[in-house]
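BUG: 3D viewer hangs when loading the predicted structure for this chain

Environment: internal workstation, default settings.
Expected: structure renders.
Actual: progress bar stalls at 90%.

Input used:
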Amino acid sequence: MGHGEKKGTIILDNFNSTANLASNPGFQSTLSLGSKDVINEKEYNPFEHRRVEHPNSTIGSLVHLLKSSLGSGILAMPAAFKNAGLAVGAFGTLIVGFICTHCVYVLVKTSQQVCVEAKKPSMGFAETCGAAFEYGPQRLRPWANFARTFIDYALTCTYLAALCVYVVFIAENFKEVLDEYYPNYKLSVEAYCALTLVPLVLICQIRNLKWLVPFSAIANVFLVICFAITMYYIFHDLPNPAEREMVASVTQWPLFISTVIFAMEGIGVVMPVENEMAKPEQFLGCPGVLNVAMTIVISLYGLVGFFGYIKYGDAVRGSVTLNLPQDELLAQSAKILMALAILFTYSLQFYVPMEMIWRQIQHKIAVKYHNITQISIRTVIVVGSVALAAAFPDLELFINLCGAIFLSSLGLLTPAIVDTVHNWDRGLGTFNWILWKNILISMLSFIALFAGSYVSILSMVDKYNSPPVLEMVGNVTVLST
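Structure tokens produced before the viewer hung:
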């Protein structure tokens, strides 16, 4: 007899029609299913059951969310505006930003609601997606484990792709500076990618997140200084906006969408931030941590993109720091600080996929081999990201491709599907507006996924199939592509 049973009471934990009622010797004619305790049972409140050792304040959570969204992606916004034009870029940034914010909102809202049903204090991204299916329509419940596993692997692939982008960021910024000081010994971007290998392998051997905090703090300081210097150059002697294209070709818009999604999306860190809040009820709502953070993010991204494109026009590059003067010390310092900031941030981004990979395989490896296995896996991942970056060193196209394939799926499509599944039996609103809204978001995701990927890959093929060009550097003739 279980701990919760009382004599004369039937516990219906078996809904099979063959349940043996006679096995309960105290069976009485009156069932106690409608007992006062059950009827008056208070609804489970996950916030009351959270036990976070070091909870974040509301302001601290806001800072974390800003930090996750305001990274190197902001420097790619002028290139995004190049693919949309000033007018379309300005309105498009607001629209895509609003949609990204809404997708984060529905994901967190769904997580909080399924926590009540599952009676769990908190859930991560993958757990939330799995629980939405598990407590959703009967026919979709067998897909719960697949949803969890898919999100885990998709997040891992997203962060691994971001690591490749980081390698190109580092290589191109160092190349810009060193080419100025050693014009007769200009190395290719691929060579600079290879030179990042040793420092990245070493820094990625740090396994404790605590020891990565100083690197993250230094990276943030460098990013702020770099951002300030970049804005100084952007606003200095701005040309007339009428000189820039207001509406770019529609065929380029998917590149704009995928770049903005890559720059803005911080979907992977949203759930950890909300789960560790001292007052998680303040994450959503108005004003709320999410709304305040995303208002700041969208404003800054629109500002940098708009004025960065006015300043440099179609000559703008994948990171606007690469457009800064090569021969001025202030601009060179910004590029070096940018490269170092990304170098230090690499190890922090590396922590996420490594944690997932190690969680999947550690129980299959003998404890005495754990150390050498960790070293080997970490080295292989870094070597792989450097090799892939060297194979496709075009920063702008790489960012477009990553945004199109990974972040459009995780940041837009997944929340839309989870929201629909969760509300299918609970009600989709007047005229099924939730369903139609999520269909529109899914369509935008597919446009970014297929059209963005197609245009990015086509541009890569065109670029790398173009004939090499001979250039004179001093008295030396070099071959460039």
